[in-house]
Design goal:
- The chain has about 100 residues and is of the alpha+beta class.
- It has one helix and six strands.
- Strands 1, 2, 3, 4, 5 and 6 form a six-stranded antiparallel β-sheet that branches.
- Strand 5 and strand 6 form a beta hairpin.
- The longest helix has 16 residues.
- The radius of gyration is 15 Å and the shape is flat.
Amino acid sequence: MTERIEELTVTYIEDGIATTKEIDKVVLSKGSWTTILFRYQDWDRVKGEYGPDKYTIRRYQKRGGEYRQQSKFNISSRAQAQALVEALQVWLQDV
C-alpha cells in the first residue's frame, strides 16, 4: 500500500513487463476518501504491443496512514467514455 496520493497507480508489472501501463491520472478529490481517474493501456501478449487507451475511476480510503482501494469503475471503451463526457456536459449546462 501507499501513503501518498502521488504514489497511487494502476501500473502492474508481471514477469518484468508492465501488463497494465498508466499513461496519466487526474485526482478528482482528495482527503480520507480519494477519487482518481486513470488513463492506461493493457499489454497484448499475442501482438507484443499495448492496446488502445482505457479509463478507470478508482476510490481509495486512507486507513492507518495508507490508501486502500475500495471500489473501481472501468470505462469499457472510447465510445463509453465519450458518452459519459457528453452526459456530464448536458447536466452541467442545466446547473
